[in-house]
Design a protein that fits this description.
single chain; alpha/beta; inorganic pyrophosphatase (n-terminal core); Diaminopimelate Epimerase, Chain A, domain 1; six-stranded parallel β-sheet; 12 strands
Length: 332
């Protein structure tokens, strides 16, 4: 915590932005919201920002319920200068799912593996179930009081990123649940967990069901229309729930890219490493052992050839076969 206080001191008197990953999910927004409250406690105001859209119903409900002011980069671009400080939350500079803004990325608080190392003035990167757990731990260790809204948002982010404590859970996540739960607003938590799907979401599920192909426990499906990041991830979770599937690869064709979401329940297949290896010559990707994401830009889709779906399928199946027999995969 001494190093964190050094960051606080460095931020005083400067314009500070807290940046989430692109198309932020509940964990990213909760973590940014919590960090903003923590910095405010020490007299450091900050602005929350992101690139893309807040396109998931549950995430939009969060911002409304807790009155979270978070801005797309286009709305603050004119106000940001190279001298301004940026703290990356639930994301890492050069991590593949974060836009490079004009400010100076001085700090990073994240729970994803590092694929492209970067130097920061302050860095806290630990592999836990959610970034919200890291932020909650700051409040606990520094004995800083939090509002019911902050506690509720952090616990909701924690529950969502761990799929209600079924994915990537560590002892820190369990400890932070115990710490946060007595402080939350139960009614608001119930409200957040109701009606989290919109009617148009059904089209994506239907398309994946229609197009899915299963190859020895690997389920691959293309969604041939524009689909938000969060929904692609939900479809990947849905496909993974099939008894016949241990690895799910879902991707959506969008105007500027092909967006991927990967899930793995196979002990020898690390989802983040898988997508990083598959996309390294075409785009970028990374993430956790159980869940990961990535993209191929519109300019690079041509590298997939005349039949991109066939190429994508062969790339993933080939890499999965290679990883399944590798000593490093067994060590994970």
């Amino acid at each position: 915590m001494d190093k964190f206080m050094e960051l606080v001191d460095c931020c005083k008197g400067k314009k500070v932005y807290i940046q989430t990953h692109n198309f932020p999910d509940p964990d990213a927004i909760a973590s940014a919201f919590g960090l903003q409250a923590l910095l405010n406690h020490y007299g450091v105001p900050s602005v929350l920002c992101y690139h893309g859209r807040i396109d998931k119903l549950s995430t939009r409900k969060m911002t409304e319920l807790f009155h979270i002011d978070i801005f797309p980069y286009e709305e603050i671009e004119q106000d940001m200068s190279p001298e301004d400080s940026i703290i990356c939350v639930d994301s890492q500079k050069s991590g593949g799912n974060i836009r490079n803004l004009s400010g100076d990325e001085i700090a990073c608080i994240d729970h994803h593996p590092t694929y492209v190392p970067e130097k920061y003035l302050y860095s806290d990167i630990r592999i836990v179930g959610s970034c919200a757990s890291l932020i909650a731990e700051y409040f606990q260790k520094m004995d800083v009081p939090m509002t019911e809204d902050v506690a509720t948002a952090l616990l909701y982010g924690l529950k969502m990123d761990t799929a209600h404590f079924t994915r990537g859970v560590t002892m820190l996540d369990i400890d932070m649940f115990k710490y946060l739960f007595p402080q939350i607003d139960g009614d608001k938590m119930t409200d957040l967990e109701k009606n989290t799907m919109e009617f148009n979401d059904l089209k994506a599920y239907g398309s994946a069901i229609e197009n899915i192909q299963v190859y020895d426990k690997v389920g691959i499906a293309a969604i041939p229309f524009e689909c938000p990041d969060a929904l692609i991830a939900l479809v990947a979770d849905f496909i993974l729930s099939l008894e016949e599937v241990e690895i799910a690869v879902i991707y959506s064709y969008r105007a500027k890219e092909i967006k991927f979401s990967v899930r793995s329940e196979a002990a020898d297949i690390h989802a983040g490493r898988l997508i990083h290896q598959v996309l390294q010559e075409y785009g970028n990707g990374g993430g956790h052992a159980e869940m990961a994401g990535g993209s191929i830009s519109k300019e690079n889709i041509k590298l997939l050839g005349a039949y991109p779906d066939d190429t994508i399928r062969e790339l993933f199946l080939k890499e999965i076969e290679a990883m399944a027999g590798s000593p490093s995969a067994q060590a994970d």
